Every structure is written in C-alpha cells, then in structure tokens.
Amino acid sequence: MPLLDIRNLVTSFHTPGGRVPAVDGVSLSIDRGKTLGLVGESGCGKSVTAMSILRLVSAPGVIESGSILLDGAGGAVDLVSLPEQELRRIRGGRIGMIFQEPMTSLNPVFTVGAQVAEAVLLHKGCSREAARARALEMLKLVRLADPERRLDEYPHQLSGGMRQRVMIAMALACEPDLVVADEPTTALDVTIQAQILDLLADLRRRLGTAILLITHDLGVVAETCDEVAVMYAGRIVERAATEELFRQPLHPYTIGLLAARPDPDMVLRVAGGSIVRPPLVTIPGMVPAPDHFPAGCRFHPRCAYARDQPDADGPACSAAVAELLEIEPGHFVRCHYAGRLGEPRPVGMVRS
Amino acid sequence: MATYLLRRLLLGCVTLAAITCIVYALARNMPGNPLSAQMGEDPSRKITAEDYARMQRAYGLDKSWPEGYLQWAGNLLRGDLGRSITRKQPVTTLIGERIGPTLLVSGSAFVLIWLAAVPLGLYASARSGRMDERATSLLLYALYSFPTFVAALFLQVLFAVWLRGTAWELPLFGMSDLPADASLGPRILDVARHMILPVTCQTYVSLAYDSRFIKATMEEAIRQDYVRTARAKGAGPWRVLFRHAFRNTLIPLVTLLGLSLPALIGGSIIIEQIFTWPGMGRLFFESIRERDYPTIMGLALMFSVLTLLGQLLADVLYCLVDPRVSVA
Q1: Which residues lie below 8 Å from residue A257, measured CB to CB, with a gap of 6+?
Q2: Closest residue of B to A60, CA-based?
Q3: Which domain CATH number covers A47?
C-alpha cells in the first residue's frame, strides 16, 4: 500500500455563518520516496488538506470525516482517529512539515540550533549534546553557510532563504518518511526558490523521503513532482503523473491553469487530437469561497466547455456533481465531459 | 552597555529637572501657602503682619518660584531634600517613616496580583471562549470597572460594621490598634488584620487588568506561526504553551512590570486615605493639602525617579527576554 493514503477527507470550518467545507472529500496517495504536487489557486483547500494530515487545522476547523492512513512497520495507522499522544510521535518524527513563511515560522526567542535540536530531543531519546550534534549535522546537510556559527544564532539574524533551510533541517532531523511542504518557496526570492527546490529534490534522493509539495506554481511542479493532483474548490479535479498531466490535461480547469502560464511557445493537445493554442490566457471569474460553492460541478461557472443543458453525452454541468474517474490508466479526472470537451466557448461568452 | 546606561542616566537627569521644575511651578502657583493653609485650619492663631512676613522669609516663601526652584535644586545637589514646613521634620525622615507601611500593602498586593494573574491569564487563554472562561472574564471585567473607593467603603461597612462582634470582624482603618510596646507576635498579627482590606482593594483592580493583559498576549502568541511549527515537530500542549508561547509573552509583560514599579512604592492615594494607612500616598495627599512644598517636591522627585527607573529596568530586561533587542 502507499505510504500515505488520504480517503474522502472532509475538513470544515464551523463559523457563525454556518459550516464551511474547505476540504470536501479529498482522496490522495503518496508512495514511498515519491513527490506528489498538490496544485491549486489560493483558497482551494490545499493548505487545509496539508494541515489536516497532522491535525494542525486550528479552530474552528475540524476534520469531519475520512481517513488518513500512514503505512508503517506495525501496519497502517489512521491519523484522523489516532490518540493525540501517539500523533505527537508522528509529528516531526515520521512526518516533517515545512511552512510557507520562514520569517515567522521559527520562534524568535530561541537559537536556530536549539530549535532543530528540540525536534531531535522530542523524538530520539538522546542527550542534549547528541541532539546538538545532530542539529549541526542537519544544518550542514541543508548546506547552510557557516553552520557552526549559525547554530547559536537567532532567527532574526538569518535571511529568509537561510531560515527556510533551517525549517527543512528541522523537518528532516528525525529522518521522516514523509515531508509535507506547504508552499515552501512562495515567500522567497526567485533565485532562492530554485536553490530551495534543488535542495529538497536532492535530499529526497539521498534520504528517500516522500514529499507532498503544496504549491500554486506549475513550474515548480513540473521540475520536482512525480505526480500531480489539481485541487479546485475543496475537491481534487484531476490527478496524473506529471508528464501525463502536462502532455494531456483533461479537466478544463487544468487546461486553464496550464494556459495561464506565461509560456510563449506552449501549445496544448486537448484530448480528441487537435493541437490548439490555449484559448484563454486567464481563467475568468474568481475561485468561489467555500461558503458559496456552486451546485453541480464547482468549476462550471468559469468553464469554457460547460454544458447548460443535458444532452445525449451527459448531464448539465450546473446540475450534476461529477465523480473523480480514471479516464486513462493512472489519470483521474472529475469532469462529465472529460476526453470529449468539444470546442471552447469564446472568452466573452463565459459566464463568470 | 555601559555607554547605553550612562546615556540613559544623563537623559533621565534632564527629564527629572524638567518634571521637578514643572511640579514646583504648579505647587507654588496653587492658591494659598503653607502658612495660610495652617492658619486657615486654626482660627485661634492670630499673628501680626510682621510675624507673618518674618515666617515667610524664614521658609523662603517671599522669593519668586524660579528662585525658589533653583534654591531647592541647589540643596538637592548637596543631598538635602529640605524640611517639611508643616511637620517640622526632614523630608527624608518623613519618607523613611512612610515607605515601610506602603511597601507592606503594595508589596503584598503586588505578589498576590502576579501569583494570581499569571495562572488566571494562562487558564483564560487555554479555555478561551468556553463557558467557564467567559464567566471568569465577565467577573474580572466587572471587578475592573468597579471603583476602588466604592469597594473600599463597601468592604469597610461589611467587615467593620455588619460583621462587628463576629469572628469575621476586621478593623475599620489604621495600621495597628496595639500600643507601640506590645510584643512582636501580637503586633504582627494586628498589622496583618489591618492590612487585609487595603490589600484586597489594591489587588482586585490590577488582578483583573493584568490577567486580561496576560490572556490577550497569550492568545496573540498562540496564533503565531512558530507555535504551529512547535506543534508540527511533536511538542506536547504544555511544552507549546510554556516554552514556545509564554516565553514570547514575557516581552510585553516586562513592560507592565516596569510600569508598576512607581505604584509599588508610591502607594495608592485613595486606598491609603480611606483606610487611614500611614503610607506614602497619604503623605502625598496631605502635603498637597497643606501646601507643604518641600514634601511635595521630595515625593514628586521620588515618583519621577521610580518611573524612569522602571522604564530603564524594563528596557534592560528586554535584552534578556528578547534576543532581537540589543541596547548597544
């Protein structure tokens, strides 16, 4: 079985305005040593999915249903129902986490070394000296310049890129099976982004750690991921091997995302054989807020291929919810008309 | 560090000169003077115009206020705070007599406040939004908005009048009912009984304020990304709360601590007045009423020094609790 298997995860926020399902039935799996990219626009639920894995969703968010199975020596455990005590051994032990904001994710009043060593101390029953030695080793591993000196420095003395290296060192200090990286490069300069991604890819090769990479950047996905899941409005809309997804996107949202990339030479082969210049440069409209998800297919108000009326091929997109179906081996799509989209509506005709 | 302290001390002296000058000007320009205040209270004392003028000269009251201030400041530089006009004693002696009783009340209140406010604040932040926390917070809010002088009078009526003759009876005012030659044990007990009501009054308002403050800073700290990081690496709830969150709330708490230093030694004018407690607050009140300029100035100088010291202390403590702050 896969290392991590998320099945029908539902995470909602209970606000005074009612129940808001930010993650609404997400299923994902990651094999040992592989990298899965979880892609989507802001607010699609990808970070909440990541936080749900270690049950770090803060109130008023709660995991309502589904399971998150982590495979291990003694069989799989369900992280959703695992007692808090045991979950703590998995946090930082078997699953490490890297966050988006390196500037604020480190505690300002402790030295970098102490914070990395703390992760070791919490999980390996070792002495402070051994933990400190391990911290130094990790800072070397993440190629932080002058690690001996950095060990006793405070976060504010480090740049953003250096802090993110420290976060990676902390996440990997206990040799976890999986690292969940929630937009690890979004807050960094472009040149630093590339360095951090290279580092992650390199560490994955050397340590055999699986990575769940949450990002909105398809360029990052293309360079680092074995498999991609595209998320929209709380649901996975498409999942495939990276190469396959980029070669042949089947969901109109994925097509739109790929078309929205600033790549002058890109052409897309829409299923059915025709090679087209992408019709849309931007996807019209906005990501719906979780408390205002449209009925039926949640993407239909923004979709250039949506059918208003049911026809011989399938239902009206505004009426029926599409299931995530395996259209081709290993290629899952949540669209009534996947593989037979037809011609897109002109941009002006798209309802927003 | 040394140059920093030196700079702060120099700045402090300038500030002190400005404060004392303003206070002296205000005091001297209040209607009346120590002689009129005294004689107003005692109509039987009739003095001739010559005597009055002679007394004015003796106390330096014939000089303008800038002259008087310069003289006071000059004496201060020689280490002389002057003598009280109305009490015929050196100001330093008066302060020395009064500082003990004030420290007794405000020190006890200070210890009680912090012993109770920190756990209360932590409890409130840990249970934020639940029924029990809301009830506690409501009660603390009610206490915070309840004026001390009303509470003091109420407590006096309750414990000294209604409960008179029962085991719960407490003294109405004063510091001790026993003669000065009573043995030590009973005297301590007697003073302690007299302290209960003033300490209660001084404690409850600050307790409400401080625990709300701790709750607010704690909730702020808990929302920070580094707290999530700590949880993500497997730290337990207590470790997250104390090591990661509370450690960061020390920074604002140090400010609060520094600001409470002057009140600790200055005492509370209202409480000491209501309970006739022989402390600094009451001395200040009386010296203003009597237009006793040397005492007013001595106390104002002391409060100013304490306020500045409190701030300096807080700034120095910052460096200890927050590595981002450096005085260099």
Answers
A1: A39, A218, A230, A249, A283
A2: B129
A3: 3.40.50.300
